[in-house]
Amino acid sequence: MSQRVSKREAGEYTAGDLAREVGATLRTVRFYEEVGLLLPIRRSRGNHRLYGEDAIRRLRVILDLTAAGMQLSEIRQIFEIRDRASSNAEAVTRFNGILKERLEEVRQKLDTLERVNNAMRYTRDLLAECASCQQPSDGSQCPHCDVAHRASSADDSGQIFHDVWVRPKPEG
User: Between the CA of residue 102 and those of 57, 76, 95, 107, 109, what are the distances in Å?
Assistant: First the structure.
């Protein structure tokens, strides 16, 4: 009696399997195939695209790099470096150049995210103090409040609170 081996056990994945494996949508997998970043290894008898194990790793890299802000053309360039370079040294130099640029951009984004994260936490803490405030909700008394004063005298951390919460409501 022959036992049928599933495509996953054979190291082959449908587009849907691949999407589920990395937490993406089927449309995402198809899109990356359409733009040439993912290639199926073959088609099934039913004409379904089948991908190998390497497609899972490649798709994760693509998703991570796009989440980090890289353009698809840059991602394609990274995957093609070794094929287009005339030597290993050239490929290494080109890849290091791209990584250096991207690392600086990611560092800047992380700095911004950290600053915004701190400001949001500080604002959340200040708003907790405002929850029991008995003053009118029009914000007219906020500029005179101790909480508002602390926010305006703080570094960038109090900026969100001050600019959104303390300002008087627009007339109209």
Answer: 20, 14, 11, 8, 10
